[in-house]
Each structure stands twice: as structure tokens, then as C-alpha cells.
Amino acid sequence: MKQIAESLNANISDLLETKIIELIAVYESFLGTGREGFEPPTAGLRVRQSFVSFDLREFYSKHESEFREWLYGRMSKKSADQYLSAIKRYLPHGVSEPKDLDRLVTKTKYLPLGIRNFLNFLEDQYYMDNLGGFSFAIWRKHLPTKTGNKKGEKIFLTDKDVVKCFKLIKEKWNDEVTINLYKLLVFSGIRLEHAYRLLESFDKRKLIIEGKVAMYPIEEITKGHKKGYFAFLPAEFARKLEKYDMMKLAAYKSRLTPKQWKPPVDSPVSPIRIRAWFQNFAIEHGVKTEALRFIVGHSPATVGEAHYYNLKKIAKEEYKKIVDKFPIPP
Predict the structure, then answer these.
(1) What would the pLDDT profile of 32-64 be if each residue is shown by its tens digit?
(2) What gap in Å lies between CA 137 and CA 98, rounded to an integer?
(3) Which residues, at least 6 apart from 19, have a Cβ–Cβ distance to it below 8 Å?
(4) Cα angle, residue 27 at apex, residues 292 and 299 outer, rounded to 5°
(5) What gap in Å lies between CA 125 and CA 258, rounded to an integer?
(6) Is the Cβ–Cβ distance between 249 and 192 less than 8 Å?
(7) Which of 126, 89, 120, 116 is nearest to 104 (CA)?
(8) 70 near 121, Cβ under 8 Å?
(9) 297 close to 228: Cβ distance less than 8 angstroms
(10) ∠ CA 79-83-89 to the nearest 5 degrees?
(11) Integrase SSV1 C-terminal domain: from which residue to which, for each copy (predicted)?
């Protein structure tokens, strides 16, 4: 009887151990360590994302050296050091979910920008798309790219802000170039300087139209770590574009920022905030993170040919989710 009992205990113990291992595997799959079948070559990653509460600072510390080298290769040392210093100084232990960042990101603009770059690093190097069970898209929602006033109030544009500013611009300037530049920013999410160069050098022969979606190549007019590939646009709008004689870039930046008008108009809209609005708008309509990064020009400057064509295809399909959802007419 004693031998039977010992044998039963051993079998039960083995069974429990097997089930626990299976549960851990399921839980880690929920948390996500990268794309299916991919194991990041970082020792202890499973331990960091096990049943122990996730700690962003602890996770960051174990990747800090590699992140620093990655960052130095993509921007000036001065900018990189500002991001690294902000994370070191202002990111405490205990941040386990995105909303924990809300009380921290107002201290300095370099903290949310630094953490955003850390997420970019994880996507680029480890193909990760979530931390602690939360997608990168949710983390980014709590990492504003701009603070509002001197007290650090965050400003996120609403669809109504975008519509109101569109009406103000039409009334104030009534200028085809200014209006189309504003629409171009709203519809594409690309940077102002890229949109400016696009209109300045526009060539209808380069325009690619597939159904409701249009794509215009911008790789030749973008530079460095702020490189882009295509401006994705509603085809109805893209067909109206042409090459324009442009004023200086600064003039259009002022025209698209009502608070800089004389007299100033109370509106939170600016080109940079339109870009942030576009990303939130796309996320709210279910656009995948990888596709969104390609659409707005956040993908790394060096992309393999096969991966490039795959991203282009995915981005085109994802853009269909928003092509006819914009709050202003094409």
C-alpha cells in the first residue's frame, strides 16, 4: 500500500508540474514575447514576464546598454542622451501598466519620447508588440509626443478640433495650396516637411491608385532617421493634387497653426499635433501597429527588400480601414 501511495503521489506531482508548465506557456503567449515561434535572445525574458508583476523599469534596465547603442545609431548623441537621462531620472520602479505613466510623462517631454523610442527598439530588434499584457498601441496612447502648457497638461486633438481648424483655414486663407497641405497632413499622417516637399515636387506619373487608396512615393524627398516611403491618401483627394509654387515652409507652418495668426485664434491644432491625432485616429479604427508605423514613417531607415514589400502590402490593406472615415472631405 505504501508503494502504491508513493507511486500515486509521484504521478500526481508529475501531472501538476506538466499542467503548471502548460499554464505558464499559455500566460506567456498572452503577454507576448514577440511574433509566433520567435524567442528573443535575451536571458531571463520569460522570468521578467512571468506571474510576477511586470515592472517596466526593471525590464528596461536589462536592455539599457543595447538600447543605448541602437539609439546612438539613429539620432544625434545629444538627443539620445536626453532620452536616456529622462528615463533614468524619471521612470521609477512600479510601472506595470500604461496608465501608471500618466503621472510621470508631464515631468519632461523627453520621458515619453524616450519610452516611445524604447518601444521602437523592441519592435525593431525583437519583433515585440506588447509588454506586460498590453499592446504597444495602448502604451503609446499614454505617451504623448507633446505636452500642452507649461504645467504639462497633455493636449490630444479631437475630430472636432480637426474639422474646426479646417473651416478656419478655408475662411482665413482661401488658398488651394494651404488647404491641400492641411488635408495632406490629415489624410496621411506624414511630417509637415515631407508633405511640403511632396507638393513642391509632385509628379502625377508617380501616383499609384488602387481602388479608394492612393500611394505616392516619398523616399526620395525624405532624409535620415526621419525617412518615409509612401504618403497614403484617399484616391479622390490624390487625383486633385498637382505641383505647386510654394512659399517658404515656415509660412505654411504658421498658416496651419491658428494660435500663430494675427490676431491669434484659440485652436489647439498644429502640424505636429495633427500627426499625433492621425496615429490615434488610425489606432481607434483598428489599424495594426506595424502598418501604422510604415504609413507615418516610423519604420527603420534600413528595411530588407522582402520585408519592405510585405509592409507596403499590409499598410495598403490597413489604410482601407480609414480611407473613407476621415472627418473632413477629400
Answers:
(1) 444 444 444 444 444 334 445 899 999 999 999
(2) 10
(3) none
(4) 20
(5) 40
(6) yes
(7) 89
(8) yes
(9) yes
(10) 140
(11) 155-325
pTM of the model: 0.56
- Residue type at 111 in one-letter notation: L
**For 161, what's the count of Cα atoms within 13 Å in the CB-facing half-sphere?**
21
Helix residue ranges, H only, the chain:
2-31, 45-48, 56-61, 64-72, 77-90, 110-126, 136-141, 159-172, 176-188, 192-200, 235-238, 249-255, 271-284, 289-296, 305-319
* 232 strand-pairing partners: 215
Lowest mean pLDDT among 61-65, 85-89, 143-147, 262-266: 143-147
Give pLDDT tens digits for 85-95.
999 999 999 89
Q: Could you give the domains of the chain?
A: 45-141 (no CATH), 159-319 (1.10.443.10)
Please give the C-alpha separations between residue 195 and each of 13, 161, 206, in angstroms, as whole numbers: 64, 20, 15
